[in-house]
Amino acid sequence: MQDYIKRLLIAGIMALCISLLFLGGKHSQAEMLDLTELTSDWVWPADGVITDLYGTRHGHHKGIDIAGEFKTPIHSVDKGIVTKSYFSGSYGHVVFIKHDNNLETVYAHLNKRNVKEGQVVMQGDVIGLMGNTGDSSGVHLHFEIHKDNWTYEKENAIDPVLALGEAAVGQPILAMEKKGSEVTLETVAKLRLMDNIDISNKGESIHPDDENKNVETSVAVEQRSLEKHTVQKGETLWSIAGKYDTTVETIKKENNISSNHISVGDILTIKSSSKKSYVVSSGDTLISIARKTNTTVEKLKALNNLTSDTIQPQQILITE
Asked: What is the pLDDT, as a whole number, of residue 265?
């Protein structure tokens, strides 16, 4: 009789444990679905390349890193109120924004802050410029999301990909793009047609990182800038395209031109080649990068304000 009762108690305890596990799993799944709905209209905060993900560095990295050109505009992912805007030894220039959905976002290592505590910001507002301040080894944005509020222990941290969409190291990102429309290496062809960014996988030094198990890729990034060109006597679409290192079709598309005819005095919007960048991979040195990008170590150091030859994997360097 006692054995029978004991078996019943053990069975009951096991059933209770299984039920709790099941309910816990359902709760986590419900929270994840809720977060997806709460952030369905969020946008990516900056142009650049993903260089680190949530949970790396033995679980201590509580955000994602987006590396880009120095002073790249940083945008608020959604409307909200600035809860903090200050300089710290770790985050550098940093901005905290509390959103209507009770999530708080963090934008760290900025070169400059454009907003003050208590200020109301709208989605897409430029809250600062990308930099390399605080505990940082290269120009990038460190972005975090926290449920309710940020704390020193970061126990409320949430993986940003749940709010912004899937991301991978080496993936290019366009600011103001919404979830589901993020830029991936598979959409290179589309990006080239848009002439916004040109990503080329050099296929060099690709290997798994021992600690984070991520794939580091040498990536060259070419960004383009908008310019206004006034048509001069004797110029054609072909001569203008050659001058700005672009194509006739691109000029026609940008200016809604259906024919090849242009007139003296016409003002054309041109997307011309701008600065080129290089994402550092493990094993790279300034000497090897200079050879790959057909430049010199001295020029690389001058363009990137480097005072030594030390560089870090996933750091972005301006090459010209």
From this structure: 85
Q: Is 85 exposed, middle or buried (0-12, 13-18, 19+ CB in 10 A)?
A: buried
- Two tokens, residue 226: 């908008």
Q: How confident is the model at residue 141 (pLDDT cuts 50, 70, 90)?
A: very high
User: Which pair of structure tokens corresponds to residue 191?
Assistant: 């990006």
Tell me whether residue 122 is exposed, middle or buried, using C-beta atoms within 10 angstroms of its C-beta: 0 to 12, 13 to 18, 19 or more: exposed
CB 32 within 8 A of CB 113: no
| Distance from C-alpha of 82 to C-alpha of 97, rounded to nearest angstrom | 4
The mean pLDDT of the chain is 75
Residue type, 170: G
Q: Top-level CATH class of 48-183?
A: mainly beta
d(CA 271, CA 252): 11
CATH number of this structure's domain 197-318 = 3.10.350.10
> What are 153-166's pLDDT values in tens digits?
888 888 898 888 87
48-52 vs 215-216, strand pairing mode: unpaired
Yes or no: say if 196 and 224 are a contact pair by the CB < 8 Å rule: yes
- What are the residue ranges spanned by the domains of the chain? 1-38, 48-183, 197-318
For residues 60-86, give the mean pLDDT. Answer: 92
- Partners of 216 in the beta sheet? 207
